[in-house]
Design brief:
By secondary structure, the protein is mainly alpha-helical. The chain has four helices and two strands. A hairpin with a 2-residue loop joins β1 (91-92) and β2 (95-96). The N and C termini lie far apart (48 Å).
C-alpha cells in the first residue's frame, strides 16, 4: 500500500516539474483537458461496474441512498451558511474590511 502511495506522489511531483519546465508545447497542454475527461469517464465507469457487481451494496442501496441524501443536504446547508458568515464578517458594501 505504501509503495502505491509513493508511486502516486512521485508521479504527481514529476508532472508538476515537467509542467513548470515547459517541456511540452501548447498543443499538448491543449489536449490535457480531453485526456482528463476521458480518464475521469473511464474511472467512473469502472467504479460503477465494480459497485454494481457487489451484491452487498445492492442490497443496502436504500440505506446508502438515504444517508447520501442526508450527507449531501447537510454539506450544502453548512457550505452556504459558512459562505454567508464569511461574506457578512469580511465584506461590507463590496469592500474588504481593514
Amino acid at each position: 500500500m505504501q509503495v502505491k502511495l509513493f508511486l502516486y506522489i512521485g508521479l504527481l511531483t514529476l508532472g508538476i516539474i515537467l509542467s513548470k519546465m515547459n517541456i511540452f508545447g501548447e498543443r499538448v497542454y491543449g489536449s490535457i483537458g480531453k485526456l482528463q475527461t476521458f480518464c475521469l469517464i473511464l474511472l467512473l465507469t469502472s467504479m460503477g461496474i465494480n459497485l454494481g457487481m457487489n451484491d452487498q451494496i445492492i442490497k443496502s442501496l436504500a440505506t446508502i441512498g438515504v444517508r447520501g441524501v442526508i450527507f449531501g443536504i447537510t454539506t450544502v446547508v453548512f457550505s452556504i451558511g459558512f459562505v454567508y458568515l464569511v461574506v457578512r464578517i469580511f465584506f461590507r458594501k463590496g469592500k474588504v474590511n481593514d
